[in-house]
């Protein structure tokens, strides 16, 4: 007699593939479970990637959902995470085509999903820097909000996402160039915001663990630009901790 684990494995396999037999339920009952599983999986993707769905249409999104599920079946009881690999799937599936930009649009929407389940911590004010000398500041590491995500693209995907927050949004000219920006939880909502290249490079370096002095180099910041970006970090409530490194 098959063990419980073996029966569960066979049942799961039969849900994904009609050609697989299962001793637990007759085929007609399995079809009901299979249909419910397909719909539930797709609805979870639709909730996570609403703008991707809008841009490709319902029928094509159903196709993408079915193909994605074949390659990346849900391995968690929490359907929030079924979209974890969707952007990478779109990268491979749409590679070399005119819709490859949808993968980066998917990265923005997945970043929103991640940020939505990440806590927003108490932030520091700019006065937290007052206790440090100017010489010490370059050795300062910034702990930023854990929900903060940075996404860069060769396509104008932030414009696409922001434009599609309204109904009947027109297509965006994909030749208009690259964009980059940040996604973060803020006051019970998720903010999506474009950044210019210096700001994106600077914040990305800080997230990776660079000190203030080291983060200035990839962003090519002078003292004035640094002052502006520090003001941005603190005024936006992005700084949660400061650590002075030897």
Overview of the molecule:
- The chain is α+β, with helices and mostly antiparallel strands and 246 residues long.
- The chain has a domain at 121-246.
- The chain is 50% helix and 13% strand.
- A three-stranded antiparallel beta sheet has the order 2-3-4.
- Helix 3 (50-56) crosses helix 4, helix 6 (101-116) packs across helix 8 (157-163) and helix 9 packs antiparallel against helix 10.
- The mean pLDDT is 90.
Task: Describe the SSE topology.
Layout: H1 4-16, H2 27-48, H3 50-56, H4 58-71, H5 86-93, H6 101-116, H7 134-137, E1 140-144, E2 149-153, H8 157-163, E3 179-186, E4 189-195, H9 197-207, H10 212-219, H11 223-235, E5 239-244
Antiparallel strand pairs: 1-5, 2-3, 3-4
Entry summary:
This protein has 246 residues and is of the alpha+beta class. Helices cover 50% and strands 13% of the residues. The chain has helices at residues 4-16, 27-48, 50-56, 58-71, 86-93, 101-116, 134-137, 157-163, 197-207, 212-219, 223-235, and strands spanning 140-144, 149-153, 179-186, 189-195, 239-244.
